[in-house]
Design brief:
Elements (H helix, E strand, L loop, with lengths): L5 E11 L2 E5 L5 E5 L12 E8 L5 E4 L9 E10 L3 E5 L6 E4 L12 E9 L4 E5 L18 E9 L3 E6 L3 E6 L12 E9 L5 E4 L8 H14 L3 E2 L7 H8 L3 H13 L3 E4 L2 E4 L3
Parallel strand pairs: 13-15
Antiparallel strand pairs: 1-2, 1-4, 2-3, 4-5, 6-7, 6-9, 7-8, 9-10, 11-12, 11-14, 12-13, 14-15, 16-18, 17-18
Helix pairs in contact: 1-3
């Protein structure tokens, strides 16, 4: 059987009244309905399709691109709830099912939820779960300190924000490392700050160490230009003011300002910082 929830490059083998039949190298077939058949095609052409179950629970191919595929996390909108569970819009005709037992909190139409798409081995159907941490594994890590990673914001805690790292691992961004608004389900780039002895991951949104100075310095330059060449902010300013105005810590601000000063791009005066050419 052609694997569900995945993209496949399949060979066109024949036409029918309902569409064209596609085949993999093992000889397994699946129908691509007429509405998705390209205008021009020939037998033995290859075509990339996504395979899932239609409303009759039969494998079917589509050229549409779902918002997530099997074994992947993503934020999806709930469109319906009935006595069996919730149904999410994942970009295909048949909505993605979420059983009640797989909902952290009851889902409601119109709301968006971070979920994991999985193949239910008991039913053979694709389904989703909002219990996303159950599908993460830190026992064997595939990342290293300072490595750039892709993040999905999972949930807020007393310590900070839990994040999904590279669709595989669980990490944490501490509150004092957050310098811009974060929303559940949003994607961000980040960096591995530290790997703890228990394989827990500490994450930073900014590049760690000295390498974070340059983007922060550019941010300050951009803000200075937008403000006409002057900002009434300095290393004596309150850390919260720096965080709110520049989305960086006071420590990062001082490093960036020092870098700009050494490059003679700014002047530091009692009233704040000035662009050199102003």
């Amino acid at each position: 059987m052609i694997a569900l929830g995945e993209y496949h490059n399949l060979i066109i083998i024949r036409e029918s009244d309902h569409g064209i039949y596609l085949e993999n190298e093992e000889g397994d077939e699946v129908l691509l309905p007429n509405k998705y058949v390209p205008e021009t095609w020939m037998v033995y052409d290859k075509i990339e399709v996504f395979v899932y179950l239609d409303h009759e629970e039969r494998p079917v191919a589509t050229t549409l691109n779902p918002k997530i595929k099997v074994d992947q996390f993503g934020k999806l909108a709930c469109v319906e709830v009935n006595k069996f569970g919730a149904f999410l819009d994942w970009g295909l005709e048949k909505h993605l099912f979420v059983p009640f037992k797989e909902q952290v909190i009851p889902m409601h139409p119109g709301n968006e939820y971070l979920v994991f798409c999985y193949l239910d081995l008991e039913t053979g159907r694709l389904a989703a779960s909002s219990k996303v941490h159950a599908f993460l594994d830190n026992s064997v890590l595939t990342v290293e300190p300072n490595e750039k990673v892709e993040l999905l914001i999972s949930n807020e805690t007393d310590l900070g924000y839990n994040v999904i790292v590279n669709q595989l691992h669980l990490g944490l961004i501490y509150h004092d490392e957050v310098f811009k608004p974060l929303k559940i389900g949003d994607s961000h780039s980040g960096y591995i700050k530290r790997i703890r002895k228990d394989n827990k991951l500490d994450i930073m949104l900014q590049r760690p160490g000295y390498r974070s100075i340059e983007p922060n310095a550019q941010n300050i330059l951009d803000k200075l230009k937008q403000a006409g060449g002057f900002m009434d902010i300095s290393d004596k300013s309150d850390p919260e003011e720096i965080k709110n105005r520049l989305q960086m810590s006071k420590k990062s601000f001082k490093k960036a300002v020092g870098n700009l000063y050494k490059q003679r791009l700014i002047e530091i005066k009692d009233d704040g910082i000035h662009l050199k050419d102003q």
